[in-house]
Hints:
By secondary structure, this protein is α+β, with helices and mostly antiparallel strands. Helices cover 38% and strands 17% of the residues. It has helices at 13-42, 50-59, 75-96, 212-215, 217-229, 235-269, 280-283, 289-295, 297-310, 355-370; strands at residues 2-10, 118-123, 129-130, 136-138, 142-147, 158-163, 169-176, 188-193, 197-201, 206-208, 272-276, 314-318, 344-346, 352-354. The strands form three sheets. A seven-stranded antiparallel beta sheet has the order 2-6-7-1-5-4-3. A five-stranded mixed beta sheet has the order 10-9-8-11-12. A hairpin with a 3-residue loop joins β8 (188-193) and β9. α1 (13-42) packs across α3 (75-96) and α6 (235-269) packs across α9 (297-310). Mean pLDDT is 88; it is low at 373-384 and 387-410.
Amino acid sequence: MQLRYxxxxxxxxxxxxxxxxxxxxxxxxFNDGLRIRQQxxxxxxxxxxxxxxxxxxxxxxKKTPERAWLxxxxxxxxxxxxxxxxxxxxxxxxxxxxxxxxxxxxxPRFRSRKDNRQAIRFTKNSRFKVLDNGRLRLPKIGxxxxxxxxxxxxxxxxxxxIKDAAxxxxxxxxxxxxxxxxxxxxxxxxxxxxxxxxxVLSDGTKVTAPKFLRRAARKLKRxxxxxxxxxxxxxxxxxxxxxxxxxxxxxxxxxxxxxHKLSTAIIRDNQAVYVEDLxxxxxxxxxxxxxxxxxxxxQFTAMLEYKAARYGRTFARIDRFAPTSRxxxxxxxxxGPKPLNIRSWTCPCGAVHDRDINAAMNVLAQxxxxxxxxxxxxxxxxxxxxxxxxxxxxxxxxxxxxxxxxTSVP
Length: 410
């Protein structure tokens, strides 16, 4: 399967200028290609083929005085910008035709130099290379200083250089890896995700929600107030924007690191993991929106899914409309609806249930039932692609809706 390894890079001032030129050239090529196709559609002309589009916006454009500076960057960067445009169009057409699941994808839009995130991609054709001294050599940019937090398991097929809103630079490598099955274990677990407790496991373990955004709210409020006082277009306002972006980046990095550690521990200790098919989009429209987005359920379940595929574990989502909070995990009796302020209840059979633990046990039972065949054996799902998106390609929108039933209130 393909995995993405991301490292921090520290370009020099001259290398930052070269990267800025590459970001700008890739953006111009993308916008020129999008403009040509939009004009062809408005004039009711045939669709411009990929080869013809590349010839017009790259090869012929370099010969004109207005686009002569496109030759200052690697041609692979420009070709990959057009590849991103083609992918965006394919996703759009697949979405409106019903072939693509999830929310409808919007058509490609023009990129702006004011976008908070800039990215370019180099493939093997560009002959990028990781040198023996640990530096990353990129064509027409130079040797970048990379902070290697871990070694690459194989030769990368491509590298994406990213500049985020906080002004940080990253190198993201796509690597083809083989499965690394962990030793077999007899333990299975069902997970009920919530807000008061981030995750409640079917064995009774409760993981308290760290609430990284809530904890940083006071500092973020102060930085945002400082930003609002700065004059628009001034240099001080640009500095204040970067400070706000860095504060948000620290929150996101802390949440991601914590979720990686928790998901790795769950996958390591359990042979099968079952979770609810939550609807983050629907819950994000309620009064609990800030807490829902602070929890980061979608990112956590995505980590569980690709780690299970990599390490030979079973992962599955149960039906989002399954009444896990209203069903007795002992006798199976379906009780009536219960408001969220009721955290424990007693079944007529005499069993006393903690709402979240009972829901997690029902998630486990439902997952075992849905993922067993006629012989009762567990069915392993297919492998999943790399967890991080390619440069310039926006990830799929969130899934369809789900009720708030079963979600804890902070």
